[in-house]
Amino acid sequence: MRNEVYKMFKTKKIYVFMLVILLYNFLPSLEQVMGTIDEAGVVINGQTTPFYMLNFMITNILPLFIIIFMADMITGEYVQGTLKLPLLHPVSRTKLLAAKAIAISIVLLSLLVFSLILSYVLGTAIFGWGDQFIYQEADQTIQEATTYSTSQGIIITLSSYLLSIYPLLAFGMLIMFLALLFNSSGVTAGISIGLIIFLSILGEVIEAIRPYLIINGFALFNILFVERDINYFTITLIVTTLYGIIFYLGSIYLFQNKDLQY
């Protein structure tokens, strides 16, 4: 596992994503200067900036990160002939896949912590700390906004970032499965991105099936802390867990039967 984590932090891709996260965290300052936030009538302060940022991170930046890195960790190494090298040591294929899953979880956590700290620092510098945690959707009035005390808001924000690893890891198992299914990083990435777009459209068109789509798990923290719908949260959590287990077991099956000679 240590070797897998090292390999991920050694690549330039992770630092490119950190740069993207850094640049994205400056967007609120640009919107403040342009007056977009005031026109929308949305109240933002330093306490809620990380929560707003997480919404974008978990639906856009991090899924793309998982797709690129999983394709590189599995398909890329297979094509280069390096995927079989750890197996020359007393390491089973199942343990190797588990190490890759744990490694991407650690890197995801690192990116989330990086974004969390940035959001708190920049949000407070731009908007001030504020008196309480106020999360307001664009179509909501201030009276309809979700409010918590400062201490509750901090706990909720930290919990949301930690909770977000769970659906991202389940999504990672899907991408791992696809990466083992195809022998091209480009094909794996293209199909994965296309799948996200298709599922997003499908969920909008047929709302009844949205709770059963894997990408709906990205909204776990919103369902729990903003919508405060425990039943919906429980269903989404169970569905996300099933997806993760099914695709992880499917990945093990594919890997056990895969000829590693490219």
Q: Write down how many β-strands occur, each being a DSSP E stretch of 2 or more residues.
A: 2
Low-pLDDT stretches are none
Relative helix content: over 70%
For the record, give the distance between the C-alpha atoms at the N and C termini, rounded to a whole number.
24 Å
Q: How many H/I helical runs?
A: 10
What proportion of the residues form beta strands (DSSP E)?
A: under 5%
Principal-axes shape call: globular
In which order are the strands of the major sheet placed? 1-2
Mean pLDDT, rounded to whole units?
A: 89
Q: Give the helix/strand class.
A: mainly alpha
Q: Which series of helices and strands comes N to C?
A: HHHHHHEEHHHH
Structure characterization notes:
The protein is mainly alpha-helical and 262 residues long. The protein contains ten helices and two strands, in the order H-H-H-H-H-H-E-E-H-H-H-H. The chain has helices at residues 2-10, 13-24, 27-34, 36-40, 49-80, 93-127, 150-181, 185-205, 220-227, 230-256; strands spanning 133-135, 146-148. It has a two-stranded antiparallel sheet. Helix 1 packs across helix 6 (93-127), helix 5 (49-80) runs parallel beside helix 7 (150-181) and helix 7 (150-181) packs antiparallel against helix 9. It is globular and about 60 Å long. The protein starts with a helix and ends in a 6-residue tail after the last helix. The mean pLDDT is 89.
How is this structure best summarized?
The protein is mostly helical and 262 residues long. Helices cover 72% and strands 2% of the residues.
